[in-house]
Amino acid sequence: MEELQCCVVSCEKPLDKVYWDNQYQSNTTGWDLGEVSPPIKSYIDTLEDKAIQILIPGCGNTYEAEYILEQGFTNVTVIDIAPTLIENLKTKFKNNSNINIVLGDFFEHQGEYDLIIEQTFFCALPPTMRQKYVWKMHQLLANKGKISGLLFNRTFESGPPFGGSQEEYNLLFQQAFNFLKMEVCQNSATPRAGSELFIELQKNSEVLVNLYPFEGITCNGCKNTVSEKFSALESILNVSMSSNFAEVLIVSKVEVALETLQKEIAYDEKYKIKQKL
Ligand SMILES: C[S@@+](CC[C@H](N)C(=O)[O-])C[C@H]1O[C@@H](n2cnc3c(N)ncnc32)[C@H](O)[C@@H]1O
Questions:
Q1: Nearest atom, ligand 1, residue 20 CA
Q2: 10 pLDDT exceeds 90?
Q3: What is the spatial distance between Cα 78 and Cα 57, in angstroms, rounded to a whole number?
């Protein structure tokens, strides 16, 4: 039996509000570029409609929002879990009614956006949360809405940041999003040159994207078998299970009853799929 895959860093050191707030309080913000990320700046320059609803999750010091506002955009929301940071941002953007600054957990956030900017947020999350990220992004985007920004195209010894590859992102986002762009970025900030992918992923509004808690799997072999069972159902377009086997992301053409899913895995009584989130 293969060993249980676990995100060691996140188990030993939960990547929660306290962890992130400490980074801002102690000024250990090595990820902070000190300026708008060049590829995102170039991308913003291509956008014409200044009234679109934009979200920047895990915004940090958000030079991106600053640049976006300078260009005349009128509907920007930034969200971050770290209270110290959010206090600073409220001072920085005081009296600017074009920005909504939210203290909170991205996964609890409600809203509808045309564009969500990805800038070192995905890589800051424990890899076990990647399926939840896809589910939440799909939920927050309006019809034809997009995630645009950067993902690392490399691995790291330990995280955060947690890396990844184009192959992994393809498997994760496929069917839930249409890939308008996913290519090696040519104008990354110097320290990240050659190690980022620029992505532009458009919400596929023709499908349902659901996330289900799952119990009973302890190895990659069983994960693959269960994924194959679900994938064999006619209306299911993609199945992606989290690396700790605790959640399964299912993209389908129509709603699939929980009983139907449970029946597919009834060959092992340990396996339980729960009500979707
Ligand atoms: C690596 S930093 C990147 C910050 C910023 N995007 C940048 O590039 O400078 C990750 C950010 O995500 C925030 N964060 C982590 N988990 C979060 C969550 N669940 N909801 C909202 N923000 C979160 C952290 O507080 C931190 O500011």
A1: 25
A2: no
A3: 6
Q: How confident is the model at residue 3 (pLDDT cuts 50, 70, 90)?
A: very low
- In single-letter form, the type of residue at position 8 comes to V
| CATH code, 8-203 | 3.40.50.150
Atom of ligand 1 nearest to the CA of 59: 6
Terminal-to-terminal C-alpha distance of the chain: 30
- In this structure, the dihedral spanned by the alpha carbons of residues 273, 179, 144 and 147, taken in order and rounded to 10 degrees, is 80
More confident residue, 19 or 11: 19
* Complex ipTM: 0.99
CATH number belonging to the domain at 208-273, selected among 3.40.50.970, 1.10.10.60, 3.30.70.100, 3.40.50.20 = 3.30.70.100
For residue 43, count other CB atoms closer than 10 A to its CB: 19
Side-chain-facing half-sphere of 182: CA atoms under 13 Å: 19
- 202 strand-pairing partners: 146, 178
Cα of 58 vs centre of ligand 1, distance in Å, is 3
User: How many Cβ atoms sit within 10 Å of the Cβ of residue 142?
Assistant: 15
